[in-house]
Amino acid sequence: MKVLHLISGGDTGGAKTHIISLIKGLDKLIDAKVVCFIEDTFYEDAKKEGIDIDVYEQKNRSDLSVVKRLANLVNEEGFDIVHCHGARANFIAMFLKNKINTPMITTIHSDYKLDFKDNLYKRLIFTTLNTIALKKFKYFIAISDTFKDMLVERGFKRNSIFVSYNGIDFESDLKYVPKSEFLSKYNIDYDGKIIVGILARLDLVKDHETFIKAAKEVLTIRDDIVFLIGGSGNNENRLKHLVSDFGIEKNVSFLGYINDPDSFMNAIDINVLTSVSESFPYVILEGARMAKPVISTNVGGISNLIKDGYNGYLIDVGDYKMLAERILTFSNNKSILEAMGLNLFKEAKANYSYDSMAKTHIEIYKKILENKR
To answer: How far apart are CA 168 and CA 18, in angstroms?
Structure first.
């Protein structure tokens, strides 16, 4: 079986981790290739992992010269399936569809109506184009059962939607810098302190405001806790002003874009996610690999992995008081923190490896090819 994956190439965070993890798993079973449309760190990181990847560079999003190249590639190389990821790939696929006789599928990594929530222009243009493009696909992979239900509610056919939860590499040795080296780079005074971290782009959908409000609550009780915010985005200035208004700059640090998530996870004690919408985020799996317990909003498919009070805590969206309470629970009892972290590692390794994700994809591909025949 030969499968061609299409993705923007400007992807960071979970999208990048997903593709690299998926292709590494698929490469053990089938012939998988990636084509991206921007040459950036995604391309370099994929090459380092030994992934077969090419760049068909676009001058801009509306440059459709790549469509003919892709059609020639698919037809000449005999790919059985074209698998798309993200708005740019979906838009290109809308035109590629008429030039090939190959089944196409796209993965819904996030709520596509919220992808450009912080930018009015992009929301009006790119969200609209992506919505139109999605309607042209026959098959979909949702990252969680809740996302499948979301698609059905929006008019997509239930029997055309498959579900595959994210998986991550638990086999390879983790590469990260020591905690002291990582934190010294940002001049973080951490000696004897608990470190709470959130690693997510600074967009409204990630709701860092709840994280910062919880930090303020915690710091009225204990001042030996450090809060790290890893990520960049349109919401950065507003969040920094909020921290300043609260007068907690001493304990809350903005680290900017993190290109080494394993070093970030190694440095923190408690992993937090406050999103208002998620599918099944990699940031929890990245923490799980390092036995870091998580406190997360109960959205998307997160509750499939996180069992409240066993391997982490679940909170309602926006509930900063409960988040603060759970942070204090961990901070006041390190034995609970360590036990839950170990439980999370075991659960994630058993059920959310990249091998299990790849095998699920193979079964989906087989069903699509059977339907074609």
So the answer is: 8
Supply the DSSP string of 83-141, one letter for each residue.
EEESHHHHHHHHHHGGG--S-EEEEE-S-TTTTTTT-HHHIIIIIHHHHHHHTT-SEEE
Q: Where are the beta strands (DSSP E) in the chain?
A: 2-7, 31-36, 53-55, 81-85, 104-108, 139-142, 161-163, 194-199, 225-230, 252-256, 270-273, 294-297, 312-315
CA atoms within 13 A on the CB side of 156: 26
Please, are residues 33 and 27 in contact by the beta-carbon 8 Å criterion? no
Average pLDDT over residues 175-184: 95
Q: Considering only CA atoms, which of 321, 339, 318, 317 is closest in space to residue 330? A: 339
| Distance, CA of 189 to chain centre | 29
Say what the pLDDT of residue 373 is.
Answer: 81
Inter-CA distances, 353 with 22, 134, 203, Å: 10, 28, 28
pLDDT value, residue 11: 74
Residue 308 is given by DSSP the state B
Give the model's pLDDT for residue 127: 81
Segment 204-219 mean pLDDT: 97
Question: Do 246 and 216 touch, CB atoms closer than 8 A?
Answer: yes
Give the chain's domains with CATH numbers.
2-170+353-372 (3.40.50.2000), 179-351 (3.40.50.2000)
Write phi, then psi, for 105 (nearest 5 degrees): -140, 150
User: What percentage of the chain has pLDDT greater than the value 90?
Assistant: 85
Whole-model pTM? 0.85
Evaluate whether 42 touches 13 at the Cβ level (below 8 Å): no
Instruction: Please give the Cα distance from 2 to 35 (Å, whole number).
Output: 13
Residue 321 has pLDDT above 90, yes or no: yes
Residue with tokens 């059977």: 370
Name the token pair of 248.
Answer: 């907690």
Q: What is the CA radius of gyration of the chain?
A: 21
Residue 46 pLDDT > 90 = yes
